Amino acid sequence: xxxxxxxxxxxxxxxxxxxxxxxxxxxxxxxxxxxxxITAVTAQNSLGVQGVENLPPAFVAQQLRSVLEDFGAxxxxxxxxxxxxxxxxxxxxxxxxxxxxxVVDPVMVAKAGDLLLQADARKALADRMLPLAFVVTxxxxxxxxxxxxxxxxxxxxxxxxxxxxxxxxxxxxxxGGHLKGDDALDLxxxxxxxxxxxxxxxxxxxxxxxxxxxxxxxxxxxxxxQAMGDxxxxxxxxxxxxxxxxxxxxxxxxxxxxxxxxx
Length: 263
What we know:
Layout: E1 5-13, H1 19-29, E2 33-45, E3 48-54, H2 57-70, E4 75-78, H3 84-97, E5 102-104, H4 121-129, E6 135-136, H5 140-147, H6 154-165, E7 171-175, E8 183-189, E9 194-200, H7 210-223, H8 228-244
Parallel strand pairs: 1-2, 1-4, 4-5, 5-6, 6-7
Antiparallel strand pairs: 2-3, 7-8, 8-9
Helix pairs in contact: 1-7, 2-3, 3-4, 5-6, 7-8
């Protein structure tokens, strides 16, 4: 039996709702074999991030090389890459192994507002990671940072997608979760056309790890051989239901229900 293999390169969330932990839970929900490369360890809970320890870049690269040289990966994602040296190490190793279906989730700020990407690493992310990306999945603040323009409206999302696409990724998915209104709108740009993905917005405080979970679900779909549009549709359906059935585990932001029945 051939089992699709999905890899996450990201930080560890000790609270279990985002990062590596959310990615592996999502991979399991989609019935793909999950592998991980840890870039940083956070002391984190539902109230925020209390501490971050970045791993040595050479060891991050060693983890990645170990996984790819033995298992390979049908699809992979990058989440928290907090420093320029870590980005350089990951980009160089991925380039060596030519991972085709790479989802880059440009994690910059945690849900509670804590910075997860150092300021001097933003240029490294744009210069080194985006040219390797099959798709990059910024939310509105991340799209604004990468594109260098304010992004508050759907028309801004389109212009940001064009600018980010010029940095090298094959696809750009600008996520509109921060937009006002009744719909959660995401826009996919392939360099020629826009595709809109819209679902009804859910009024919920149980949203910790939504970006990590969405990108991991896209990776799972790609690993299973789905086309880009189908991977995004199934990922949005999964995240929407996981938010709808979310729950409070601590005293702050609530959790997604990754372990959905009959998914």
